[in-house]
Amino acid sequence: MLLSVRTLLLVGAAAIVAAVVSAVLLRGMEFGSWVAGSIGALSIASGLVVRALGAAQSGGGGDPRDRIEQKHVKARGRIVGKSGGAGEGDRIRQARLDAGGDVIGKQASADADS
């Protein structure tokens, strides 16, 4: 996880805690629990919306192709995204790889070690 994402999550969590504590101190426990419940409901609703938008952008899950994602991988030897199989149109994404050998997105057969 990126440092900026971690920072935003930490600031957001601190803001939620501060909002609930200030609501309890200023107006009492009942109002504080209402604020906490409202924040929880909004976070669940926004999570569901983000998940629905992500599924709509990715094609809805009816895609028979393989999706392979490799990020920040370190290896002494080679890195192979997928080996074997005759599936065409596979989505293989490789980023920031550190390998001592070859970096292969898709290898036609597993026994081709040359």
TrEMBL record:
Sorted UniProt keywords: Membrane, Transmembrane, Transmembrane helix
- Transmembrane domains' residue ranges: 33-53
Q: List the lineage, top down.
A: Bacteria, Bacillati, Actinomycetota, Actinomycetes, Pseudonocardiales
Protein origin, superkingdom: Bacteria
The name this protein carries in UniProt is Uncharacterized protein
